Amino acid sequence: MITVVGIGADGWDGICEAGRTLVESARVVLGGPRHLDLLPDVPGQRREPWPSPMRDRLPALLASLAEEAAAGHVVALASGDPLVSGIATTLIDLLGTDEVTVVPAISSVALARAAMRWPAESHAVVSVVGRDVALVRRELAPGRRILVLSSDEQTPRDIAGLLVAEGYGDSEVTVLGDLGGPEQSSFRFESAVILTGTELDLPRLNVVAIDCVGPALGGWVAGLPDDAFEHDGQLTKRDLRASALARLAPVPGEHLWDVGAGAGSVGIEWMRAHPSCMTTAVEADADRATRISRNAARLGVPGLEIVHGRAPDALAGLRTPDAIFVGGGATRDGVIDACLTALRPGGRLVAHGVTLETEMLLGRLYLQHGGELTRVSVETSAPVGTFTGWTPARTVTQWALTR
């Protein structure tokens, strides 16, 4: 059992009485050098800084402390609430919920809300601690408020640059530093543009508060405009994408395989449905795989995983999916079989076909497995001389199945 104790910028005096008792009685205390330096001397106590890189070396450190942990003599220190972008989440992933106890301090999110006087229900919270600031893009909307948990003193400027690039340069930005500590600070910038040009030394520990002023960049309901994606023609078009995602039915925390991903549009919109939705995009063409990465970052889901390879071989060893979209390559030997095998009960599969050969395959699969078989025809208006007429797109056959 490892106990994780939250510690604020106010140091030892800010730890609750129960937390101080746990730290003082521990045989081993783990933490960052900054946290360990805040503790009073305890004779005979072993203090270990977190290893680097942490995720790779942490299991070995924990294994070396198994005896002390079993006796309940190991304490880990974390900033604020250890379950808000904190070490407690990593320890629970590695050890399980029964092996970790958490004694939180006030989180940086709560302190930032208090400083800004923002009610909890009035804003979004985004963590870019060790992550790409492109995550902020998903939350941008006129009049929206966002609290961003920063990685370091450079993060506020990176965020400001992103805001300017997305047309949100007039947004008011406040950098809240060392919250809860004696050196707590607040730097308000009337616009993100001003922040990008400032030479002010910003605190390393900070939270960025954004009052958004800018244009609507696209809704969260499936069916973004086609021109929202960079593509070479291999794109699941807007109406078909919305139809596919309605049947894939993204649910928080679920994982999608986007097989033959093309521009990655289906997988990207799956992830935009909820911050905990994840996608693995499988694409054989190297240029398209790179393009998917750019599209994902531009649309606020930089965590999308890209596998450069050809199905079905590229599917081996991937995380088990909750849903699968096959946008290309359905007729390749073994692709559909591999997808059906990977689906657990309740999983959804949607496959599209524009050729006669793929349509025949999907028809056979429908007769064999059931599900829903649909032909989708879309026509758009276009000039015909001085008049207006209809231009039909290729008809797409769609097979949808729930296990």
Helices and strands in order, then pairings?
Layout: E1 2-7, H1 17-25, E2 28-31, H2 33-37, E3 46-49, H3 54-64, H4 66-70, E4 74-79, H5 87-95, E5 100-103, H6 108-116, E6 124-127, E7 145-149, H7 155-165, E8 172-177, E9 185-189, H8 192-197, E10 206-211, H9 238-248, E11 255-259, H10 265-272, E12 278-283, H11 286-298, E13 305-308, E14 323-326, H12 335-342, E15 348-353, H13 356-369, E16 372-376, E17 379-384, E18 387-392, E19 396-402
Detailed description of the structure:
The protein has 403 residues and is of the alpha/beta class. It contains 13 helices and 19 strands. It folds into three domains: 2-106, Tetrapyrrole methylase, N-terminal domain (Cobalt-precorrin-4 Transmethylase, domain 1, 3-Layer(aba) Sandwich), CATH 3.40.1010; 109-211, 2-Layer Sandwich (Methyltransferase, Cobalt-precorrin-4 Transmethylase, Domain 2), CATH 3.30.950.10; 226-402, Rossmann fold (3-Layer(aba) Sandwich). It has helices spanning 17-25, 33-37, 54-64, 66-70, 87-95, 108-116, 155-165, 192-197, 238-248, 265-272, 286-298, 335-342, 356-369; strands at 2-7, 28-31, 46-49, 74-79, 100-103, 124-127, 145-149, 172-177, 185-189, 206-211, 255-259, 278-283, 305-308, 323-326, 348-353, 372-376, 379-384, 387-392, 396-402.
